[in-house]
Specification:
Helix content is 49%, strand content 11%. It contains 21 helices and twelve strands.
Length: 485
């Protein structure tokens, strides 16, 4: 039994495509509201579009929700399994005089539509089958005459207090008597959704603005079926950076795409939550627990949000930096293995070193892929020199060779790499003795041992790599430069 004060929300995706950004945000807002209020989050798969719904898409949706950590309390329920219940609800409406059979042919309806177009008016069904005597209509149905079932829309208007948009109203004469059961016996979307929400005791319907036009029809059905009308909150759509409708070129792809690009689920949840919602202060980086605590429907804004990939990357970097080296290492390990940097066994054998490496490079990383790119040079093997690094620091071959000669001499003189202050002091002293800029020496070492223009502190980097790797790479760089490449 549902408590009188229990909040029940649902996420009801159609498995005709991936779980995209807009759908994921809808799921998140429902999940946050359920967790904030101590309510129930219901998952319902609306798979009545048989031709377009696939098992693959259902699996993708569940996979995406799982990655985001949006666990559901009930379900997944499958709408296709409830068709008989939907038809029962339609028949109850017919028996109550709230719906009627419509025997209009396709040609008759098309003629009505064309007449409306000629009058430059919006098409609304004329309601001609309303006047058919119920007993006659029943006989014609029993005789097998093709028909649909239409809901009889009353006069007046249908209004509700939307949490996001305030009072919202539609004139009923612009809605017209709408179909609730097709001629093949299949229930239409608005009927199925209303019956499902009614049976699942949904108290709050949180969904995108593109559903606003469905809401008056559903409210009319709730009332006709004798069910309480839930609270509606219609969330503005997400736009691309150019303020146009979000598309694939902006990021409207399956959320697992972002998982595969190295984003963290907590960071992506943080990012999604801020697309059309605000905690009411200046916070941007928020943990999952902070989001749950702060979330209220009243703070959903009425303006469309912009999908900003730069902000997503920044937030992901912030979440990475806030993680412990141990936690990052566990997440990053599969990436290093998949990219062929090393095997899991070898990394596990040097686990403490790998954890320290993650601590060293996390501040300059925004994704798990960045960790691999920055971490790869710390593993044995050759490095590739970034052309921009070569152009910037080795453009003058003579200076670069002189700098690396000092570097080689300095490395040979070092008893170990564990006293960073001593290492820097001795390198600077040797460079001064040899008449070479210490800065140029350190820059040349960076390119030689990492292949990159930037890295963590050069002495921390060398300490993490170890003497053997540093010596080999400085020697390889000197040979590379000697060849005049």
């Amino acid at each position: 039994m549902t408590r009188p004060d229990e909040i029940r929300v649902r996420f009801a995706p159609s498995p005709t495509g991936f779980l995209h950004v807009g759908g994921a945000r809808t799921a998140l807002f429902n999940w946050l509201w359920a967790r904030h209020s101590g309510g129930t989050f219901v998952l319902r798969i609306e798979d009545t579009d048989v031709e377009r719904s696939t098992e693959e898409m259902i699996a993708e949706i569940l996979d995406g929700l799982g990655w985001l950590g949006l666990d559901w309390d009930e379900g997944p329920h499958y709408q296709s399994e409830r068709a008989e219940r939907h038809r029962e609800a339609v028949e109850s409406l017919v028996e109550a005089g709230r719906a009627y059979p419509c025997f209009c042919t396709v040609q008759e309806l098309e003629a009505e539509r064309e007449a409306a177009i000629a009058r430059k008016a919006a098409y609304v069904y004329s309601g001609r089958c309303r006047s058919i005597d119920p007993e006659e209509a029943a006989r014609r149905r029993e005789a097998g005459e093709s028909h649909t079932i239409r809901f009889e829309v009353p006069a007046g208007d249908t209004a509700w207090e939307d949490v996001v948009h305030g009072r919202t109203a539609f004139e009923n004469d612009r809605i017209g008597d709408f179909i609730v059961l097709r001629s093949d016996g299949a229930p239409v979307y608005n009927l199925a959704v209303t019956v499902d929400d009614m049976d699942m005791r949904i108290t709050h319907v949180i969904r995108g603005d593109d559903h606003i036009s469905n809401t008056p029809r559903q409210i009319l059905l709730y009332r006709a079926l004798g069910a309480p009308v839930p609270t509606f909150a219609h969330v503005p759509l997400i736009l691309g950076p150019d303020k146009s409708k979000l598309s694939k070129r902006h990021g409207a792809v399956g959320v697992t795409h972002y998982r595969d690009r190295g984003y963290l689920p907590d960071a992506f949840v943080n990012f999604l939550a801020l697309l059309g919602w605000s905690p009411g202060d200046d916070r941007e980086m928020m943990t999952r627990e902070e989001l749950v605590e702060a979330f209220t429907l009243e703070r959903i804004t009425g303006k469309s949000a912009v999908f900003d990939t730069d902000k997503l990357e920044w937030l992901n970097g912030q979440h990475l930096s806030a993680m412990s080296g141990e936690a990052i290492a566990e997440r990053a390990l599969p990436w290093f293995v998949d990219e062929g940097v090393s095997s899991e066994e070898r990394i596990r054998d040097r686990w403490a070193w790998f954890v320290e490496l993650m601590e060293l490079i996390k501040a300059r990383s925004r994704t798990l892929g960045d960790l691999v790119r920055q971490g790869r040079p710390f593993f044995p093997g050759e490095v590739e020199y970034d052309p921009e690094a070569v152009e910037k620091f080795w453009k003058d071959g003579d200076q670069a060779r002189a700098a690396l000669a000092v570097a080689a001499e300095w490395v040979a003189s070092q008893p170990d790499f564990d006293e960073l202050d001593r290492m820097e002091s001795e390198l600077r002293s040797l460079a001064e003795e040899r008449g070479v800029s210490a800065g140029k020496v350190m820059q040349s070492i960076r390119v030689a041992i990492t292949g990159q223009r930037v890295s963590p502190g050069i002495f921390e980097t060398m300490a993490a790599m170890g003497r053997e790797v540093v010596e080999e790479r400085i020697e390889a760089a000197r040979e590379w430069l000697a060849e005049g490449v």
